[in-house]
Description:
Layout: H1 2-15, E1 36-42, E2 45-52, H2 65-73, E3 76-79, H3 86-96, H4 111-123, H5 128-131, H6 136-150, H7 159-169, E4 174-176, H8 180-188, H9 192-208, H10 210-224, H11 227-239, H12 247-268, E5 274-279, H13 280-283, H14 289-295, E6 299-302
Parallel strand pairs: 2-5, 3-4, 3-5
Antiparallel strand pairs: 1-2, 1-6
Helix pairs in contact: 1-3, 1-6, 3-8, 4-9, 6-9, 10-11
Amino acid sequence: MLKRVRNLLLQGVALCLLLPALAAADATTSRARLGLFYEVTDGPAKLYLFGTVHAGKPEYYPFNDTVTNALKSSRYLALEADVSNQSDATKQMAAHATYTGGDSLGQHISPALTQKLQPVLEQYGIPMELASSLKPWTIATMLDLFVTQDAGLSPEFGADMMLATAAKQMNKPIVEVESMQIQIQLFESMTSAEQEAFLANTVDEISSGKGASTLQNIVGAWARGDAQALNKAFVDSVAELPPEAKFLDKKLIKNRNASMAQRIDGYLHSGSVYFVAVGAGHVVGSDGIVERFKAKGYKVRDMQP
């Protein structure tokens, strides 16, 4: 039974590795302007850039005609990772998310954090016996998934998943800006202290209710297509991180902005038109992909109505 539960959790976590930007949006939100959507050009070279969230609601869709027609006219869909390949994602998670050789969670986090974690696990019906076999970063992302589901959201209706489905219906090849393996390696590269700080911050946010509030602000802004409000929500969320967890912004967002922008620049000058969809947190802000392209002299045009 525990093995089956663990496998189900790993499947969910594999779809939600980038969950720091998810929550419930207003039910009255119009899909006419949903998400962040830009056309990037450098002379004759062109691509489309869409800022996503990784879970959502069915009422967000279908995408408006501007987004749909741009995808139709593109040669490739480029995602952070191909979230539609669930089998591969689950295998990647299973290979890295758990301890082996008699190692366990209790050897890597303090007794104080273990005590704080226990009621949160109980809240979501997660046996401590199962959690003991998982690494701190795995538990943190898993807990984010449960909070997201509590908000009425599902990875099934994440913008990236919906774009992948649409691309397959149009027979568009899907390529990866990163990959699930690269994303897992980001978490694996955390030191023991960083993993503990990541988990501690997640537990504190759940216990205080701040996590849900932050997610609501972020996805609410995304659903309105409000880049300025979305960036403010991200900046505010980083400002509220405790000192020991500040590294998360650099490791999970800013460092990746640079590598993603470089990869996407290659798509722009490839001779083919790409529809690129990456997390909205990488698109906005002074260090985001849009500003990086503007600094190169590229023309970036807001495509949403």
